[in-house]
Each structure stands twice: as structure tokens, then as C-alpha cells.
Amino acid sequence: MPETWRRATATADPAGRASTGPSEADATLGTVRESPTETSPFQAYRGSEPPRFVNGAERECAQILDWYGIPWEYEPRSFVLRRDAQGRVTSAFTPDFYLPDQDLYIEVTVMKQSLVTRKNRKLREVRHLYPDVRIKLFYRRDIERLAQRYRLRIAS
Predict the structure, then answer these.
(1) d(CA 60, CA 117)
(2) What is the CA radius of gyration of the chain?
(3) Considering the chain, what percentage of its residues have pLDDT values greater than 90?
(4) Residue 40's pLDDT is what?
(5) 46 near 66, Cβ under 8 Å?
(6) In this structure, which topology does domain 56-150 adopt according to CATH?
(7) Where are the domains of the chain?
């Protein structure tokens, strides 16, 4: 514990002795505030930082995973596809979700089918460069089917 924090929180215990740590109540409140289940709306999320979804479809997929208690992480890894002559990454692919129990990455796209060519190409590159990595791409039609089946509203 930093010395400046210790001095700033010095209190007296019930016997009147000086204490350099937080009170029991402060410590309990600190634990509650830092608890991931209290600060995160997701119970099955396994990441260290709160997820920052790019679109509503990703959030809805996360809610489905969470509803069924499927442990998941949001964008935990990027796969390098190409580097320049100096070794800098020039192309990479970052799947939206990782399901650790299934050892499966999931990419969600709600682009029109005619616009997903680039994403499909990157996915083929990942499969070629990382043959042991399991990855699945969910298209708009897949999301629509899930939404219909589970009576969900589809994010635009």
C-alpha cells in the first residue's frame, strides 16, 4: 500500500490506537466496488476489462452467451496476418469472442452479405496461418435466425 495512501486514511481503532489501513467498512466497500459481478452486467464474462462492443449485434450475442452461462471473452487476441520489412504488423484479425470451454473464436458480422468479402478473406488467412485455431463466422442471417428463434430484437 503506498505510504501517501496510508497517511491519508489513518484512523483510530475502537481502543483509540492509530491505524494506517482502511477501516473494516471501507475495506468491505472497496471489495464490493471491485467485484466483477457487481460492476459488470455480464455473469459469464471472463475478461479483465469491461467489454466495449463495436455494435449492438455484438452486445446481443454476448447477452445470449451470458444467458446460457457460456463463459466468454471479448476480443482477447489478435492474429497477425502480415508484417512489413521492419516487422511491423500491417494486417491482423481480431475475432469478437472467445469461448474458452469450447476453445472457439467467434466473429460476428452484420454487414450485408455482399460486403463481407474482405472479412471472409481474413478468416481464410487466419485458418491458413493458424491451423490449430478454431474460428466461426456468424453472418447477419445467422444472427437473424437466432433473434427469431429466441424472440430478440436485432440491433441495426
Answers:
(1) 24
(2) 22
(3) 42
(4) 53
(5) no
(6) Endonuclease; Chain A (3.40.960)
(7) 3-34, 56-150
